[in-house]
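Section: protein folds

Sequence with per-residue tokens
===
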Amino acid sequence: MLSLLILLSIILLSGCSSWKTPESAIDSRPLIFPDYAEVSIPKNIAPLNFIVEGADRIQASFSHEGVELIRVKGNDGIVQIPLNKWRELLGQAAGGNIDVQVSVWSKEYPRGVAMLPFPIYVADDDIDEWLAYRLIEPGYRSWRQVGLYQRSLTSFEEMPIVTNAQSNETCLNCHHFPSYSSKSMMFHARGSEGGTILYHNGKLSKIKFNEIGPKKNTTYPAWHPEGRYIAFSSNTTRQSFYLHGKKPIEVYDYASDLLLYDTEQGRVLTDPRFMTDEVLESFPSWSPDGRNLYYVAADARKLPDEVEDMHYHILRVPFDPAAGSFGEQIDTVFKAEEGSASHPRVSADGRYLLYTWAEYGTFPVWHPEADLRMIDLQAMQPVDISLWNDPDETDSYHSWSSDGRWAVWGSRRQDGRYTHLYIAHFDAEGAPHKPFLLPQEDPRYNIWRLKSYNVPEFIDGKVELPDEAAELFNPQK
């Protein structure tokens, strides 16, 4: 009752020729898309524009500590917040709350209704300005357009880094950066004229790994923080199709090893322990100091018959950057007694390891049960991040921000088919906060865009590949 009285007071006190007064108030919050109620956001994030389905006219006021700072009105239920005003609001609210009060006019409420306000928590932490990802149609056999893109998280600016229009319409995948640097980048371009494209120290090159060293193709990369070495897994991948059930496809590795590429010497280094047929290794990932390599491994099985018995552990091996060699001891960080691990990634402070859990296998994007899980590497205990996961749909590939305060990952929670990007705060006390969908200038774009987001990676600036990048895909190159 008190909340209703407060809302009615707001209605009576509001006055502006273009700012309408709703006739009534209800004791419930608006159902907005995306769901931004009670999320924690960076103090430099782009505006959290949203929509109320079924509304004709909408009004939203944004307040901090009881002072109204922004008013936004819109049609078709859409709230689009001016960027400059939003930035001023975030600057004042950092470390506190923004209270959002929404009123709508609709067929159900033709004279308008005011709804209960909802809070948005503004963390006193910035987020890396840029995010790189791949956009691809969500199929498993073919595609028409594939591209690597970059997006400013402080605005809505998005631009391509490279698309398959430049690579003779081949597949582009597995992009990576050393220590979040936008000045160095690698990605794979498949096809007869493809290879691994490396942009490093101002030089652009194409490497055909199947023609050098052990002559193995490279798959999942991890660029060493110091920039000299790149760890790769070399995966021979197969796929099988289900006749029934929720999963349409099963993707698995028939074989996989670990390789190390020396960018200075242009050679591939191998360790016999990671080149056997008895154990499959994948998803290498460096610790922030570059002194340890994390990866997943499972005993080989008869595939595809025993694919549900493929349970990947998370292992760790020390690395000497000066010698370019791995140490003798291999530690088990996660033992897959139940389930299977993929995508191990360590936070910037080296304390927390985030990974994807699924019932089995190492291609969780097609597993609706796949969730994010975390290990405190100091205590060697799990951290409860269930708040980040959807109970019914896939939560998969993820990465940490450069300060370890934010995580981004791909999730199919919106519709079960398209992968969208969610961001969540992980505060200084080691507590997770409610995630939010990547903001868009028009919130309907999250529905209209018929592309899946793939492999999100934070970067420190805008990537600018040389114009001659396209020439690397010509036959003479």
Summary: The longest strand covers residues 249-262. The two ends are 73 Å apart (CA to CA).
